[in-house]
Amino acid sequence: MDVDKLAFTGSIDTGKVILELAANSNLKPVTLELGGKSLFIVFEDDDVDKAVELAHFALFFNQKVNDEFVGKAKAHALKCVVGDPFKKGIEHGPQIDLKQLEKVMKYIRSGVESNATLECGGMYIRTANETRYRLAVGIFTKSLDTENRVSRALKVGTVWVNCFDVFDAAIPFGGYKMSGNGREKGIYSFNNYLQIKAVVPALNNPVWIQ
């Protein structure tokens, strides 16, 4: 009851418990930085090689590289350009309908269940805002229009454009939805620890304006 504010970084499940405890005590404000599986969006007009390097860094900077991205075959598959089949340079178009897509997914699941190793892909692309994690997203494009449009549309705490994992003391950091609330760093972090007070004094000689 004597604690006025809590800030927590950790798992979603623990964050929920902390919110419940805060609500059952003195309704203290809670700032949460919770789970995040950051999206990595690469547009067809971007430098794919640079994007691959940043993806590699983002995924493995705390780990050892596993057999150099598991060989040349996987590297080639990752360079496959997917999109509108009527556009020049597109190597792979969409499935004809949802039924065919589910058929393909069934074969993939069957392979995994038979102890085959799925090297890349294997999941169909949902919209970026459907994920429950909303901590950060990296987008890669040379188009300023695409950059502005997608950055505005993404419901996440941080959007990195043509870069990834860039931090600064002045840049606020935190998530939306299941990735937490509140912000660390930057001027916005102070809002987590401040309360607004309204002081309304009575005036002895009020001035009336007609």
TrEMBL record:
First and last residue of the signal peptide: none
Chain coiled-coil ranges: none
Subcellular location: Mitochondrion matrix
InterPro entries (UniProt xref): Ald_DH/histidinol_DH, Ald_DH_C, Ald_DH_N, Aldehyde_DH_dom
Domain Aldehyde dehydrogenase: 2-122, 125-199
GO MF annotations in UniProt: oxidoreductase activity, acting on the aldehyde or oxo group of donors, NAD or NADP as acceptor
GO CC aspect terms: mitochondrial matrix
Protein name per Swiss-Prot or TrEMBL: Aldehyde dehydrogenase domain-containing protein
